[in-house]
Amino acid sequence: MQVTFDLPDDVAQRVNALENCLPQILELGLREFEAITHVGFSGIAEVLQFLATLPTPEEIIALRPSPALQTQIQTLLEKNRTVGLTPDEEKIWQSYEYLEHLVRMAKARALLKLKDYSSTKTG
Question: Mind listing the pLDDT tens digit for each residue in 7-20?
Answer without folding.
Answer: 899 988 988 898 89
